[in-house]
Amino acid sequence: VGLDPFFWFMDLAGVFVFGISGAIAAERKAMDVYGSFTLAIVTALGGGMIRDVLLGRTPAAAFGDPLYLGIASLGGLSALVFSGQLSRLHFSLRYMDALGLGIFTVLGTTISLDQGISLPGAILLGILSGTGGGMLRDVLSQEVPLVLQKEIYAVAALVGAGLNGGLLALGVSVNVSAGVGAGVIFLLRILSLRFDWHLPRAGK
Amino acid sequence: VGLDPFFWFMDLAGVFVFGISGAIAAERKAMDVYGSFTLAIVTALGGGMIRDVLLGRTPAAAFGDPLYLGIASLGGLSALVFSGQLSRLHFSLRYMDALGLGIFTVLGTTISLDQGISLPGAILLGILSGTGGGMLRDVLSQEVPLVLQKEIYAVAALVGAGLNGGLLALGVSVNVSAGVGAGVIFLLRILSLRFDWHLPRAGK
Amino acid sequence: VGLDPFFWFMDLAGVFVFGISGAIAAERKAMDVYGSFTLAIVTALGGGMIRDVLLGRTPAAAFGDPLYLGIASLGGLSALVFSGQLSRLHFSLRYMDALGLGIFTVLGTTISLDQGISLPGAILLGILSGTGGGMLRDVLSQEVPLVLQKEIYAVAALVGAGLNGGLLALGVSVNVSAGVGAGVIFLLRILSLRFDWHLPRAGK
């Protein structure tokens, strides 16, 4: 899809932030410099690769435009260079991560609908796009994926993907529906962190 | 492929049962409600997604027909609602799981042969279809995949997939060969549970 | 791509050696015989499957030619039969593993360039081809992937894939560029093992 310049910029911002988060996870596990870059790239580009492979949009977009690989590496490099400062940036990182989640989710949903996928399938693919990179990061660094555990994370993606898809189905323009969807994901995620919202545990 | 109504029903039954098993695994790991649904969907649809992606049948079937997503979610929901009763259902769950393994394996083998894959490749893809969802479930919930460990599980799939493929190659009709294959997988699995059959450990 | 007979032979040698390494990992985790074969096949063929799926070269090559599946199984079988002798073969195994890494990486890079992927993307895909099977092996056997941790492994692949791609871009013939790339990967890996070279840890 031809992305609106604003969304194109936000897409790259999401790649950058997820790249940082991958490198931070690598550092916590005492991996070497290469491991940091690998996890940065996998986290930043993994969700989009899963989306493209499941849709049959190959070669996956991450390999078509070297810019994505470069921005993901830049995120990893930033985490290595500024690792001392990153603890102080913790709060703004959460903001940017929530932004990335919102952008990747609505991009995934929109691209899937554009390829003729049904609405429920497109919502699922949107969530996979938004959360897939983080899941790969957690599996490779031997953690139970965060999104499966306790925080309001993927649920925010579910709500936003549904809004985005529903508005598109009602004939709202893609920029508005995607903006609303990504904004709601961002807000839900930030509010849940601030007010410590949780989903009930299964089986309680 | 146009599925015979009986196989189509059994396919959905397999999706349902594997959905339940994913939600049970999530509950054991104290995941939240979203984690339960995610694991339910991944377990129920993961094997088919792996199959479709490796064959190039994209978009993956699970995204083409919302019914699959609905049935997988229904399985996850059932596990959440009836979690108290499920321990008592343990035995019949094993039966249905064995049935699902049989159905998914022969479906995978048959679809692969239909796409011109060689017999050994089709058997491998059948096993991946039958066991892939459970492998993803175990990796995401931080367990060594059960099928790699000790039970007669994937070996049953191997025998049934080989039978199914061999009978098809001999000109037997697909309904008969798939029925025989799925039935043998079901029986081998159930008998191995009842009589505690195991494969020898490697290196003994 | 039509492989030069020499590379075709080396490709199969790589499959064989990675098959052995998968079965050894299974034995260390006390998996059963089936688990050994599964890990052997996943390790030997996984990197190529990831490459083909991301490139859209489906059905994945491993399913097109039964020879690959046979050679991977033969590797697993060898590890089971000669498990007593393998500790003594430890040193030559490392040599062969380094050779496999070199071959798979340059094959992945060359095939990707041949499909019109940009140089950075082709290098990334080459590294994924060379190290992907081992990563799947480690994730399935519940280890933090070795390549993410401490050894000069994927960095060797990065250097060799870059050399291979760079020489191709300069008009050097594919046999020479691939030979140089694979040779450099092999040498870097062997030298790093002999002289205990490591990358710095992140955040130090």
Account of the protein in words:
The structure is a homotrimer of 204-residue chains. Chain A is mainly alpha-helical and 204 residues long. Helix content of chain A is 76%, strand content 0%. Chain A has nine helices and no strands. Chains A and B meet through helix 2, helix 7 and helix 8 of A and helix 1, helix 2, helix 3 and helix 4 of B.
The oligomerization state is homotrimer
**Uncertain residue segments of chain A:** none
Global morphology of chain A:
globular
Strand content of chain A: under 5%
Largest sheet of chain A, in brief, is:
none
Helical content of chain A stands at over 70%
Summarize the helix and strand pattern of chain A as letters.
HHHHHHHHH
What is the first-to-last residue Cα distance of chain A?
Answer: 44 Å
SS class of chain A:
mainly alpha
Query: Largest chain interface and its two residue counts?
Result: A-B, 34 and 34 residues
Q: How large is the count of helical segments of chain A?
A: 9
Total number of strands of chain A: 0
| Average pLDDT level of chain A | 82
Roughly how many Å is the radius of gyration of chain A?
16 Å
